[in-house]
Specification:
83% helix; elongated; mainly alpha
Length: 93
């Protein structure tokens, strides 16, 4: 089924953004894995609740200024942080 040209263009842009998000997340996790190795080497705990709280508040403010739902941004960050902590716990073992 043929798509109207404007719909195809929108979808192409979405595909480009999705690809960029994947690359950004890959880079973020590359860095946080290095942080996990550092924490393991220096006997630091995998989680830092104070840092997490600061980041959540910071991203909620950024979301509001970008007209993005702050609840969504918090859920997204919590999802990422949970994966980061899992990586840090693996590095510690």
């Amino acid at each position: 089924m043929d798509q109207p040209a404007d719909l195809a263009q929108f979808r192409s842009s979405i595909d480009n953004i999705d690809a960029a998000l994947i690359h950004i997340l890959a880079e973020r996790f590359r860095i946080t894995k290095a942080v996990g190795a550092y924490k393991a080497k220096h006997g630091l705990p995998p989680a830092d609740k104070a840092r997490e709280a600061e980041q959540i508040e910071r991203l909620r403010r950024l979301a509001e200024s970008a007209n993005l739902d702050p609840e969504f941004s918090e859920k997204f960050l919590r999802f990422i942080v949970a994966e980061v902590i899992r990586h840090h716990e693996q590095a510690r073992s």
